[in-house]
Design a protein that fits this description.
- The protein is mainly α.
- It folds into two domains: 39 residues; 231 residues, MetI-like fold.
- It contains 13 helices and two strands, in the order H-E-E-H-H-H-H-H-H-H-H-H-H-H-H.
- A two-stranded antiparallel ribbon has the order 1-2.
């Protein structure tokens, strides 16, 4: 075959591959177009609208709105209640992250070793995640009431000086709310870590034990580095939950009080929107939470990215 014929054949093959690649791309976009459209309507549209509403002075859905530009943002950074909510959210996030994730990881590792009764324990750990927020609130109200279980046992053992009205005390209200997330979160994340760690080869642990590795070493020197990426995902989920989801516990237990002692960003957004009817200002808080959520997620994912991935 001549050089010209070979060149022509090569060009024809390249053109055929290009047409095939183009058809595949067109088919791909046609197939995902409904999903992209649905995502845009459900997620992107409301997100853009949140930024738009944050520039309005709007006192209710049926009332007219007025464009105020950045006035709501200037108000936000002069709002002492916002800074208290920010500080409380930071405390909530720090305590929850430092307690829930390490404890859950160790319990998840323990269950992944398939000890006797691990199926029963897995079910027990998962039960809090199956309870609704009002059900959890009722459980903890039974603990925190002046004549509730905690105060009853404190009096029973002679520690009357430790008796509190836990939800009405500025010093304990935030801690009482955080305790709900600790109780529910540890079991939930334990089951998730169990599912992830169950995929790690048992031969790896056995080889480390032959070399003299302790149980602690197996957890933090072997299992943890292997599952660092999944651990990062769990940090992100917990981080986003504290920012917004935990507001329901504040609503049901303390209403942000007494004073602002248990006020969090998520609940402050709710209060401004539905109690005070400052819809524009509430969405300004939402924009701030969104920005913190994005930055926090990117930071966590960067820190927890497996080092062997370039």
């Amino acid at each position: 075959m001549s050089v010209a014929a070979k060149t022509s054949t090569t060009r024809s093959a390249r053109a055929s591959r290009s047409r095939l690649a183009l058809r595949r791309q067109v088919t791909f976009w046609l197939m995902i177009a409904p999903a992209v459209l649905l995502f845009s309507v459900i997620m992107i549209g409301p997100l853009i609208n949140m930024f738009r509403v944050s520039t309005l002075d709007w006192r209710g859905i049926v009332k007219p709105s007025t464009f105020v530009g950045l006035k709501n943002y200037l108000r936000l950074f002069q709002d002492v209640h916002f800074y208290r909510a920010l500080a409380n959210t930071g405390i909530h996030l720090a305590v929850t992250t430092l307690v829930v994730l390490p404890v859950s990881f160790m319990l998840g590792f323990f269950l992944s070793q398939r000890p006797a009764g691990y199926r029963f324990l897995r079910t027990v750990f998962f039960i809090p995640g199956m309870l609704s927020a009002p059900a959890l609130a009722m459980i903890f109200l039974g603990l925190y009431l002046p004549d509730g279980i905690i105060n009853h046992y404190l009096r029973l053992i002679g520690l009357d000086n430790l008796v509190h009205v836990w939800l009405a005390d500025r010093g304990t209200a935030l801690g009482a709310v955080i305790a709900v997330d600790l109780w529910g979160g540890i079991g939930w994340y334990t089951v998730l870590f169990f599912a992830s760690l169950s995929n790690v080869s048992k031969e790896l642990y056995e080889a480390a034990q032959i070399d003299g590795a302790s149980y602690w070493t197996l957890i933090w020197r072997i299992a943890f580095p292997i599952s660092i990426d999944f651990f990062g995902v769990m940090v992100v989920l917990l981080f986003l939950w504290v920012l917004m989801g935990s507001a329901q516990n504040v609503l049901l237990l303390t209403g942000g009080g007494p004073g602002d002692s248990s006020l969090t960003l998520g609940f402050y957004l709710y209060r401004q929107a539905f109690a005070n009817r400052f819809l524009g200002y509430s969405q300004t808080i939402g924009v701030f939470i969104f920005a913190v959520g994005i930055l926090g997620t990117l930071l966590v994912r960067r820190i927890t990215r497996p080092r062997f991935i370039s």
